[in-house]
Design goal:
666 residues; single chain; alpha/beta; six-stranded mixed sheet
Length: 666
């Protein structure tokens, strides 16, 4: 009877679970995620689950890892410093397609080159311009390369990537290796985000493998992809973008395993995000447009999921406008005050006490900063360097760190690079103050709530007279925003259109009055017509109220707090390869291989050659990821038109899928 270990590394907690023969949960455990050294948190969770189960580490036959780190990094705008080499496009395309925003000030080079839709060279690649660029940009952590029509002929991407590796030694993310589809700007976006995540995911996998070895677990390590399938650790290192939505996808697989639900809205609340997907006939849908996380639309195949910057550690923002005032949550994750107080109790409590004694509330009340150790500081300006030095190695009240408003922008850049963390009031603090949770510093949470409650509304009144009232305001806001997120997903997935964007429909006055059961001349009723499966460590605290608000059943399964770790070990290895055949002229059929286009005189021969090639690639990928008992399935999407009473071939796309169970160590 094989023991399987699932681990999920989230923004706040790292979860571990042991399953026996994919049917019985033996034990589960949690440990705080340690961003400065991920191996500490991973090791803590695994050691705890081994201790609880009493099993010998040598009995573990397979380990699998899911993570929300890539998703969180993109939502929060974090990641390594990268450079984009954009071949055959125009400078203005960087702005038109959002690449400039995604680069966040990181360098980009637009040079001549690229191919046409048939795979022929449009212009020679400007090698000299690339060499000059590389000589002045050796300080980036990774490069992204995207060339026009690279999926029809990747020669220029391969040439540029080889030169970058030779000159800089840095990792290179080539767009044609991430997607076989057209749409160069979207492939470029995917390549940029992939490059930004390389260092983070490589560090995570290295930490996980080192921890397994240290604990005496000699088992293969798998990683969950964004569509819920498993891939080998080496492939995840090369293509970390495929791990966006990894944690949420694993949660959906785990939710199905835990509940057996066929039709439901699955909502997973973590520290940083709430991830929502629709379960139909027991399976999550794959997003045909490519995964979207935060503002970014990628070409990564992933579950059709809406990710909202709303979680237990979302920052609480004061709304001073209007007579009543109020709060809103997110989208940024911060360290809860009750948690940072565990690391520096004297500093945190002294600052909170001083702020409470002040006659009027201060701009930075209840807010702290701390540097994240061990990360690269390449490309920082003088102001950012000075601010990092001032923060030092401990926790510092934000008001002591920032000397003027200009430095607030420097702090923002440091947070985006992941070099500094902000601590502030969160729903987790509110839960501690209300007695729902008791794992961190409750008194620090209460003081932070008092400071928020002192703020004045537009009418001149205090937002909340007591800390418990303030805590309930925060929790009620979490319920409200969670309900909005679920309604938005339901409207988006509804078969009928209601004439407005889903976000507008969720917030529409008729929807909101219907949730309240309006009774006047009109009777308005609104609710969800299927249950919610609430997942995440805090779901038990928050989701009963959400289900009540939406008039539906809230299913809160046992072990729902580690559904992601469970999903990490009950999934399958699935590899997909896709290729295209075009017809550049009558009687000529062009197969677009990764090595370049090849022409055939017969369509059947061209299609057969491509399918054989894709089958061999998909099989090799699956075997390389440790799959066994592999089944291969191929589909052909052939487009043709009738002209002069005969069928004319236009294009064909072949997709091959190889799927099997991960190999279990003997």
């Amino acid at each position: 009877m094989a023991l399987l270990l699932g681990v999920d590394t989230g923004g706040t907690y790292t979860d571990a679970v042991l399953l026996r023969d994919e049917s019985v949960v033996v034990a589960s455990a949690k440990s705080l995620t340690t961003k400065h050294d991920l191996g500490v948190g991973i090791g803590g969770a695994i050691e705890a689950v081994l201790k609880e189960s009493g099993v010998d580490p040598s009995e573990v036959a397979m380990a699998s890892l899911s993570t929300t780190l890539a998703t969180n990094a993109l939502v929060e705008g974090q990641g390594g410093r990268v450079a984009l080499v954009y071949i055959g496009f125009k400078e203005r395309d960087l702005d038109t397609h959002g690449l400039r925003d995604a680069l966040k000030g990181d360098p980009a080079l637009v040079i001549a080159g690229g191919h046409d839709h048939a795979g022929g060279q449009a212009e020679p690649l400007d090698i000299q311009a690339l060499k000059r660029f590389l000589e002045t940009h050796k300080d980036v952590s990774a490069f992204a390369v995207a060339a026009q029509f690279a999926t029809r002929n990747p020669a220029h991407e391969l040439q540029a990537a080889a030169l970058i590796s030779e000159v800089t030694g840095a990792p290179v993310s080539a767009s044609h290796q991430l997607s076989a589809k057209l749409n160069g700007p979207k492939r470029a976006m995917t390549a940029v985000l992939n490059a930004r995540l390389i260092g983070m995911i490589d560090g995570l996998i290295a930490s996980a493998q080192g921890t397994l070895k240290r604990l005496g677990i000699d088992a293969p390590l798998m990683v969950v992809r964004g569509d819920g399938a498993l891939i080998g650790a080496d492939m995840a290192r090369e293509r970390p973008i495929e791990t966006i939505l990894s944690g949420p996808a694993a949660s959906i697989v785990g939710a199905r395993w835990l509940t057996g639900a066929d039709h439901a809205l699955v909502s997973d609340i973590g520290g940083t995000t709430t991830d929502i997907a629709v379960l139909r006939d027991g399976r999550p849908a794959i997003d045909p447009m490519g995964a979207q996380v935060g503002p970014y639309r990628t070409m990564v195949e992933a579950v059709a999921m809406r990710t909202h910057g709303l979680g237990g550690d979302s920052e609480v923002h004061f709304i001073g406008s209007g007579l009543r005032g109020g709060v809103t949550l997110g989208p940024r994750r911060v360290v809860p005050v009750s948690l940072v107080a565990l690391d520096a109790p004297d500093v945190v409590h002294a600052a909170l006490d001083a702020q409470m004694r002040a006659a009027v509330p201060g701009e930075y009340d209840g807010r702290f900063v701390r540097a994240v150790k061990g990360l690269r500081r390449d490309g920082l300006g003088a102001r950012e360097e000075a601010l990092l030095e001032r923060i030092g190695g401990g926790v510092l009240p934000m008001g002591h760190a920032l000397k003027n408003r200009i430095e607030a922008q420097a702090l923002k850049r440091l947070v985006e690079r992941g070099l500094v963390q902000i601590a502030a009031l969160t729903p987790s603090d509110a839960s501690h103050a209300l007695g729902r949770v008791d794992v961190w510093d409750v008194e620090a949470a209460k003081k932070a709530l008092c400071l928020m409650g002192r703020r004045r509304t537009g009418a001149g009144d205090r937002l909340a007279p007591e800390q418990d009232v303030m805590a309930q305001i925060v929790i009620d806001q979490l319920t409200h925003q969670t309900a909005l997120a679920l309604l938005e997903t339901a409207f988006a997935e509804e078969a009928e259109s209601f004439g407005l964007p889903p976000a507008d429909l969720a917030r529409h006055v008729l929807t909101q009055r219907g949730l309240q059961g309006h009774r006047g001349l009109l009777r308005i009723e609104v609710g969800l017509n299927l249950p919610i499966v609430g997942l995440g460590a805090s779901a038990m605290s928050y989701y009963p109220a959400v289900g009540e608000r939406l008039g539906c059943e809230a299913i809160l399964p046992q072990h729902g707090g580690v559904a992601n770790a469970i999903g990490a070990v009950v999934g399958r290895v699935t590899m997909r390869r896709q290729g295209t055949v075009t017809a550049p002229s009558e009687g000529r059929y062009r197969v677009h291989f990764e090595t370049g286009p090849e022409d055939y005189a017969d369509s059947a021969a061209a299609l057969g050659a491509l399918e054989d090639h894709l089958r061999a690639q998909a099989l090799a990928d699956a075997q390389g990821s440790g799959a066994e008992d592999i089944h291969i399935h191929a589909t052909r999407d052939i487009k043709s038109v009738e002209a002069e009473a005969r069928e004319v071939f236009i294009e064909a796309v072949i997709t091959v899928e190889a799927s099997g169970r991960p190999r279990i160590a003997a």
